[in-house]
Amino acid sequence: MEQDVNRGGSAVALDAAPEHDNNQVSTSKIWQVITASSVGTVIEWYDFYIFGSLAAIIGPVLFGTTGKIEDTILGTLAVFGAGFVVRPFGALVFGRIGDMIGRKYTFLLTLLLMGGATFVTGLIPSYDKIGVAAPIIVTLLRLLQGLALGGEYGGATTYVAEHSPDKKRGYYTSFIQTTATVGLLISIIVIIATRNLMGEAAFKEWGWRIPFLLSGILVIASYYIRLKLHESPLFAKAKAEGTTSKNPLRESFVNPVNRRLVLISLFGATMGQGVVWYTGQFYAYSFMQNTLKLDIIDAALVLCAALILATPFFVYFGGLSDRIGRKKIIMMGLLCGAIFTIPIFYGMKAFAGPLTETVAATVDATGKAVPAVMKALNPQLIPMTALVFCLVLFVTMAYGPIAAYLVELFPTKVRYTSLSFPYHIGNGIFGGFVPLIATALTLWAAGKPDGTFLKMWSSYAGLVYPVAIAFICFIIGSIYMKDVRNVKLMDNESGEVAS
C-alpha cells in the first residue's frame, strides 16, 4: 500500500506493506527517499571530513606541538585515521541492528551519534588549558564518529536500493555515491568562507571551531527529515513474513557462499575503490598544501572546481552500469587510477611552480628553530584543476556503480551487514589511511641523503601505496568479480548474483 506525499513538502517514504514491489515505485517517491537519505549522509561526511581538512590548524591547538609541523600533521592524521579503523566495527554493530530491527531507525541513530561527536569536538578546550585530556577527548570522539559512519553508508545505500526499480538501481543509488564528495566539498567551502570572514589569525585561534559547531544545526534539520521516513519496504516484507535474519553476523561471515562474496567485494572492488577515492580527492588536497605549498585558498579553489565539474559523472557512470554492467566501469576506474596517478601528481608539481621563502628560517625566544615558510611561486591553477578533475573522474568510475554492485550481491536479510563490512574495510582502512601512509612515506623518502633516488622522487613516494593497492584490486576483481546488473531483489534471496 502506498502513502500520499505529505502536503507540507516533507520527505515521506513508502508505507511498509508486505505486498510491495520495488519495480512499481513511483519516481516521485523514489526522489523523496533519495533526498531524505542523501541529506543526512552528506552531513555525516561533512562531519567526518572537516577534521581532516583542518588537520594542520587544529593539530597545534588540541595536540600541542613539538616544534616540528611534520610531527603535528602526522599526529593529527593518525587520529583522523583512527576514525577509519573503527568503521568496520560500526558496520558490524549497526549492520546487525539494521538487519534485525530495521534500516530507518539505525541510520537515525548513526546521524545523531555523528553529529553529536562533531559538535562536541568544537567545544574541546585547547591543549594549553587541559593538557593531555584534549587529545584523549578528540580521539574518543573520533572513534565514535567512525562507529557512526560505519553504520550510515550501509543504511542509506540499502534503503535507497530497496526502493529502486531493478533496471535503474545503478542510477538511483549513484546519488548516494555523490554524498561523500559533496560532504567534502561543503566542508572545504565552509572552512574557507569562515576563514575569509574572520581573518586568518582569528580563525587559527578559535574560528576553526565554527565548522564543527555548525554541524549541530545541520543534524537537527536532517534528523527531522529522516524521522518522517517509513521502513524499507523489502525489509518490512521480510519482517512480516518472518524471514529476517536471527544472526546476521553468522549468516554473513560463516555461511561459505556469503563469505566468499564478502571477500570478493572487499579485495576485488572496495579496497581499490577506497585508495582511488582518498588519493584523488583527499590526498590531492593535502599534497597541494603540504608538498606543493599552495595557499589554502588556491588549493581549495582547485579541488572545489574539480569536484563540482566531476560530481555529475557519479550519476553518469551509475546509470551506465545499468546498461553495460558494474564490473567494466569499476575496473576501468581502478586501472586508470593505477596507471595515471603518479603522472598526474608529477604534472601538478610542475604547474605549481618553484617554491620561494615568504618567511626566513629563524630562532624563537626560547631558542627553538623556526623553519622557513615556503610558498608556491605563481601556481597555474587552471591546468592543476584539469589534472585534479582527471583524478576525481577515476573516482567516479570506481565509486559510482559500486553501491548497486554491493546491494545486488547479498540477500535482504543480511544485506546491511554484508555490504557494510567489506565497504568500510576497503574504503575506511585501505582508503582512509592513504593520507597518513602517503605523508609518512613522503617524509621518510625526503629524509634520505641528497642525490639518492628516493630523495629526488620523495614528493611521489607516498603514491606507491595507493597505486599498488589499486592495481592488485584490479587484478583480483578482473578474475573473480561477476559482471552483473539489474538483479531482481524481490527474488534474489540466496546470496547468488544473477547475470
Topology:
Elements: H1 27-53, H2 55-63, H3 69-85, H4 87-100, H5 103-121, H6 127-130, H7 133-161, H8 169-198, H9 200-207, H10 209-227, H11 233-240, H12 248-253, H13 256-290, H14 296-310, H15 312-324, H16 326-352, E1 355-359, E2 362-363, E3 369-370, E4 373-376, H17 381-399, H18 402-409, H19 415-431, H20 434-446, H21 453-456, H22 458-461, H23 464-480
Antiparallel strand pairs: 1-4, 2-3
Helix pairs in contact: 1-5, 1-7, 1-8, 1-10, 2-3, 3-7, 3-19, 3-20, 4-5, 4-7, 4-19, 5-7, 5-10, 7-8, 7-19, 8-9, 8-14, 8-15, 8-18, 13-14, 13-16, 13-17, 13-19, 13-20, 13-23, 14-17, 15-16, 15-17, 16-17, 16-23
Which labels suit this protein?
499 residues, 23 helices, 3% strand, disordered C terminus, two-stranded antiparallel ribbon, mainly alpha, disordered N terminus, two-stranded antiparallel sheet
General description of the model:
This protein has 499 residues and is an all-alpha fold. It has helices at residues 27-53, 55-63, 69-85, 87-100, 103-121, 127-130, 133-161, 169-198, 200-207, 209-227, 233-240, 248-253, 256-290, 296-310, 312-324, 326-352, 381-399, 402-409, 415-431, 434-446, 453-456, 458-461, 464-480, and strands at 355-359, 362-363, 369-370, 373-376. The strands form 2 sheets. A two-stranded antiparallel ribbon has the order 1-4. Helix 8 (169-198) packs across helix 9. The longest helix is centred in the middle third of the chain and has 35 residues, at 256-290. The radius of gyration is 23 Å and the shape is globular. Residues 1-18 and 493-499 have low confidence and may be disordered.
